[in-house]
Design a protein that fits this description.
Layout lengths: L1 H11 L6 H25 L2 H48 L13 H12 L4 H4 L20 H14 L1
Helix pairs in contact: 2-3
GO biological process, one term: vacuolar proton-transporting V-type ATPase complex assembly
Keywords: Membrane, Transmembrane, Transmembrane helix
GO cellular component, one term: endoplasmic reticulum membrane
C-alpha cells in the first residue's frame, strides 16, 4: 500500500497516463458511486439517481479517453519503428541502389527512376516558361490605378456639378 501511494504521488509529476493514476481514478469513482447509492437508499431522493448517472458517464468518458490515448501512443510507437526500419533500409540501399549505369550496371531500374523524375513538375515547367513580371509602365488601365486616372475621375465629377 505504501508503494502504491508513493507511485501515485510520483505519477502526478509524470506526464501522460500512468497505471497508478488509472487505478486511483477508478477506485475514486467506485467509492463515489457507492456513496451515491447509500444516499439514495437513505433519502429516496431522485437527485442521487441523476448524480449517479452523471458520475457513471464521466467515469466511462475518462476510461474511454485513456484507452484512446494508449491506442494513439501504440500507433505512434509502431510508426516510429516503421520509419526507423525504412531509414535503415535506405542507408543500406544507398550504396547498392541499382541505378548506376557505368560498367554494365542495372540500367532498367535507372530508366524507371528517370521516368519517375520526368513526371515531376517544376514551377518553370508548369506554365511552359517563366513569366516576366510587368513593370508599372506596362500595366494596362485595369490592372493598376495611377494618379492620372484619379484625376480623370475627379474631372468627370466636377463636370456633373
Amino acid at each position: 500500500m505504501a508503494n502504491f501511494l508513493s507511485d501515485l504521488f510520483n505519477s502526478i509529476f509524470t506526464p501522460g497516463v500512468t497505471p497508478s493514476i488509472i487505478i486511483a481514478t477508478n477506485v475514486s469513482f467506485a467509492a463515489l458511486q457507492l456513496v451515491l447509492l447509500v444516499l439514495l437508499v437513505l433519502t429516496y431522493s431522485v437527485h442521487f439517481v441523476v448524480l449517479s448517472f452523471l458520475c457513471a458517464g464521466l467515469w466511462w468518458a475518462i476510461n474511454w479517453f485513456v484507452t484512446e490515448l494508449e491506442a494513439a501512443n501504440q500507433k505512434e510507437k509502431e510508426g516510429k519503428q516503421l520509419r526507423d526500419a525504412r531509414r535503415g533500409q535506405d542507408d543500406q540501399g544507398a550504396d547498392d541502389s541499382g541505378t548506376e549505369t557505368e560498367g554494365g550496371g542495372n540500367q532498367s531500374e535507372g530508366a524507371v527512376v528517370a521516368s519517375k523524375s520526368e513526371g515531376l513538375l517544376r514551377p518553370d515547367d508548369a506554365r511552359g516558361a517563366l513569366r516576366k513580371r510587368r513593370s508599372l509602365g506596362e500595366a494596362s488601365s485595369g490592372d493598376l490605378s495611377t494618379d492620372s486616372e484619379w484625376d480623370k475621375v475627379e474631372e468627370a465629377g466636377d463636370m456633373d456639378k
